[in-house]
Amino acid sequence: MLKKIFVGLAVTAGSAQAEAPKVVTDIAPVHSLVARVMQGVTEPSLIMPAGSSPHNYAMRPSEARALQQAEVVFWVGEDLTPWLERSVDTLASDAMSVELLHVEGGLLLPMRENAVFAQHEDHEEDGDHHAEGHDDHDDHDDHDDHDDHDDHDDAHTDQGNDKHHDEHGHAHDGNDPHVWLSPENAKLWLGVIAETLSEIDSNNAELYSVNAAAAVSELDDLVDRMRGDLAPYAETPFVVFHDAYQYFEASIGLQARGALQLSDASTPSAARLHDIQEEIAEQGIQCVFAEPQFNDAIVHSVAPDGVKIGLLDPLGVELGTGPSLYPNLLNAMAKSFEKCLK
Fold first, then answer.
1. Of 74, 123, 277, 308, which sees the most CB atoms within 10 A?
2. pLDDT value of residue 49
3. Which whole-number Å values give the CA distances from 328 to 20, 39, 88, 156, 191, in the listed order?
4. Any residues with CB less than 8 A from the CB of 65 and at least 6 apart, and which?
């Protein structure tokens, strides 16, 4: 769903050639997709630098200025960055705001709240998620009704109950916001990005369309290769640091058995870690994943001797920003899975 607001496009005096649009993105993977579509025109601005947590980032003055000057803002949505919603509304009120999580037809999955996930969770309905779009996911059968994210005042204060709100008050009992790790979502977004940019910059519409089509083709080839490489490990259980990867799992054909933390902004309870330790022992799990921007002490505390410690990076923290980051991110994740699971 695109929220379209009046956009003023600057034109150089005495010239019919419009300036390149000023575009802002939230996280590096989204920046990469937008940069790929805009190749040959200009580069978008990135609000959040590598290594920053999406949940509670505080913008620097230069980033606030970029947002204030933006004509288009591409961002995942308030489910991932609740602090950014108010900034977009106030600093970029004249810009076109595109919340990618809410793009019609995108895959949207519910949060997996428990430490240990249900064995062989069913992703066979993924096609229905794509066809029906965002509105049909609000009442998922596996979840009770929950309050909207705006009702933060009703958050539980018990830090041990990490399935409802993390220490920053961000709700984690609704939709999983890590939607960029679905290559199918990324391909859908590339088309939306190209269409949106073409509306305000018709001079480069053909280039946007060509770039988006080429990027989709590149992702198709990458996904085919990743599925082939990881097919032998479809039934191999593993544990992740925080539950960020189910979109990748659903697309490529993998199955995590649990997560040490519900999100990268929450602290796991002792009970949660105990459940993970039991699952590792009972299921003979031989691979537990850490993340590069976090201390791996928790990972080592639950992984007995002999269990491999892998590394997964959902944001591309150690990759250079730009058009190639997104495919490089997916490829690096696939290689990490293959190395740890074999």
1. 74
2. 86
3. 27, 17, 29, 39, 20
4. none
Per-domain boundaries in the chain: 2-106+180-223, 126-150+159-174+234-341
pLDDT higher than threshold 70 for residue 66: yes
CB atoms within 10 A of CB 37: 33
Q: Rounded distance, CA 101 to CA 186, Å?
A: 11
Helix orientation angle between 28-37 and 183-200, rounded to the nearest 10 degrees: 50
Given this model, what pLDDT does residue 264 score?
66
**Backbone angle region of 98, left / alpha / beta, with phi > 0 → left and psi within -120 to 50 → alpha:** beta
What's the Cα-to-Cα distance from 320 to each of 28, 63, 291, rounded to whole Å? 9, 19, 17
pLDDT digits (tens, 9 = 90+) for 235-290: 999 999 999 999 999 999 999 999 998 776 678 889 999 999 999 999 999 999 99
Assign domain 2-106+180-223 to its CATH architecture. Answer: 3-Layer(aba) Sandwich (3.40)
CATH number of 126-150+159-174+234-341: 3.40.50.1980
The alpha-helical segments, DSSP class H, found in the chain are 28-37, 61-69, 82-91, 126-132, 183-200, 205-230, 246-252, 270-283, 297-302, 325-341
Strand pairing category for 2-3 and 45-46:
unpaired
- List, for residues 10-29, the tens digit of each pLDDT value: 333 333 345 899 999 999 99
The whole model's pTM is what? 0.80
How far apart (Å, rounded) are the C-alpha atoms in residues 265 and 56? 8
CA-wise closest residue to 330 among 36, 29, 37, 44: 29
Q: Which helix (H) or strand (E) holds 290?
A: strand 287-290
Output phi, psi for 119, to 5 deg: -65, 135
The mean pLDDT value for 120-141 works out to 42
Note whether 106 and 185 are within 8 A (CB).
yes
Instruction: Write out pLDDT tens, residues 289-322.
Output: 999 888 889 999 999 999 999 999 999 998 999 9
